[in-house]
Amino acid sequence: MQHKVTVIGGGNVGATAAQRLVEREIADVCLIDVVEGMPQGKALDMMESAPVEKFGAMITGSNTYEASAGSDVVVITAGLARKPGMSRDDLLHKNTEIVGAVCREAFRHSREAIFIVVSNPLDAMCEVVKRITKLPRERVIGMAGILDSARMRWFIAEALNVSVENTHAFVLGGHGDTMVPLPRYSTVAGIPITELLPAEKVAQIVDRTRNGGAEIVNYLKTGSAYYAPSSAVVEMVDAILRDKKKILPCAVSLNGEYGYRDLFIGVPVKLGRRGAEEVIQIELTAEEKAGLKKSADAVKELCELLKV
Ligand code: TXD
Fold first, then answer.
1. Phi and psi of 170, rounded to 5°?
2. Ligand 1 geometric centre to CA of 213 (Å)
């Protein structure tokens, strides 16, 4: 395998993403966690599944960063997960410490890597990685929009009894209660859902998308979603390593696009071998702009609290 991906945090999202990466032979994986023996055990268990699953990619587990050297992509999932009733923002200070420490270590061993940030609160953790590594904006990308739009796609497919493959959904903004799903750009076989579903149903889907994370947390009681989040991570890694130039909603530090600067917000991005190669701008209605502003204000407020 010529590509190497380091996944930091061998918990639910990290381990599931690692599993999907090796099973699809997208890259060799180095799985890192602070818990002694855990990443080694999970990596060995996955390697022992290789003869049956028939993959040739390698995964190794480690508690230190030497093994991560020379990674093309570093995925950061380390941190605490949300508990019921806990907001993403409550996680801010604890996860700043964790994400700050792990990205410093990873960057020391992989100077060329593209960083994909998953840990919550997402947009603020992206900012932590950007401030610590001082990398150009192409190389620090947050995962949220793909997950949010995948959730919306499932709700659309379920409502219309159509294949998920026919659905497309568009979600902008921060990863939180202020995300901005855009129904007029969300389609089934190219037809906007606003033409296929009554307004109340569209509003319900938008609402359920916004609360998609909390809905799972409430079911699980401990821990948060990880199957769909890990799928979203893998789609990003794949688009980058295979230089797909795929347009996907991701959190990037804006450079004046959409009227914002130096702020991580979820927008459509072209993902390729150089990372977030381009931000795609679309015209927004006054209402959508107001939604995005609310989202941007929430991210800004959180970033002002950061102690890095
Ligand atoms: O859309 C999104 N961006 C998200 C974000 C979707 C789902 C989950 N989201 C967030 O990702 C979640 O709120 C958490 O902040 C992270 C990871 O979620 P996960 O569900 O994987 O949490 P786990 O299972 O608790 O795993 C976290 C692991 C755990 O094994 C810890 O031991 C490890 O992180 N951890 C560390 N690893 C390395 N180094 C340090 N310092 C460290 N601290 C904790």
1. -130, 115
2. 14
pLDDT 10s per residue in the chain (308 long)?
589 999 999 999 999 999 999 999 999 999 999 999 999 999 999 999 999 999 999 999 999 999 999 999 999 999 987 667 777 667 788 899 999 999 999 999 999 999 999 999 999 999 999 999 999 999 999 999 999 999 999 999 999 999 999 999 999 988 878 899 999 999 999 999 999 999 999 999 999 999 999 999 999 988 899 999 999 999 999 999 999 999 999 999 999 999 999 999 999 999 999 999 999 999 999 999 999 999 999 999 999 999 88
The overall pTM is greater than 0.90: yes
Q: How many CB atoms lie within 10 A of CB 287?
A: 9
Question: Which residue ranges have their beta carbon within 6 Å of ligand 1?
Answer: 8-14, 32-35, 77-82, 95, 98, 101-102, 118-120, 122, 143-144, 147, 175, 223-226, 229
CA of 115 to the centre of ligand 1 (A): 15
**Tokens linked to 48:** 């022992």
β partners of residue 28: 4
Number of Cβ within 10 Å of residue 129's Cβ equals 29
The residue assigned the tokens 């072209």 is: 270
The C-alpha R_g of the chain, in whole angstroms, comes to 19
Q: Residue with the nearest Cα to atom 1 of ligand 1?
A: 144
